[in-house]
Amino acid sequence: LRLPFAQERNLRIVAGMNLKFPALALSIALAPAALADVTVTLKDVHLCCNSCVKGVDKATAAVTGAAAVSDRDAETVTITAPDQVTAQKAVDALVAAGYFGVSSDPAVKVDATSGAPAGKVQSLVVSGVHLCCKTCVKDVNEALASVPGVMATTAAKDAPSFEVTGDFNAQDVFAALHRAGVTGKAAKAP
Known about the structure:
Blueprint: H1 5-15, H2 22-29, H3 32-35, E1 38-43, H4 50-61, E2 67-71, E3 76-81, H5 84-96, E4 102-103, E5 120-127, H6 134-145, E6 150-153, E7 161-169, H7 170-179, E8 185-187
Antiparallel strand pairs: 1-3, 1-4, 2-3, 5-7, 5-8, 6-7
Helix pairs in contact: 1-2, 4-5
């Protein structure tokens, strides 16, 4: 029988103590929920290069108690946190940094709110998309080219925003970005 890491660690700590109430100490050491970390994996995250991974690290470093491990090949980001609230904050920080993925934990949500208007538009300014390199830009442009009616984009490396033009459904733009593992927000034209 193998115990989860947190329980095994606590049992080792308690075993090293000279306690008057060993049964109570043992029950505390084996308490599963109170001491276990929360782990959530986001899959299908755009991680084309080391700069993408550094962006994930930077976004999650701002959340005290959370740690993220990126797997470029698997396109996953695994977040470990002391509790669900902290895990959610780390996921929210990734979304704010322009990343998107599918959560392995239904209780930890990936916010898909884009602010895009309903219906067709001829122009849409998109801000906050993760565009750290030429591959990010290429992948974003390919994703947007799959949206019926999109004719062009001005996406560029490190651009804080870009314009999408044509005759297209604005919400379809964000659905395509999400499938590509990135996200952003509808913005006002400059």
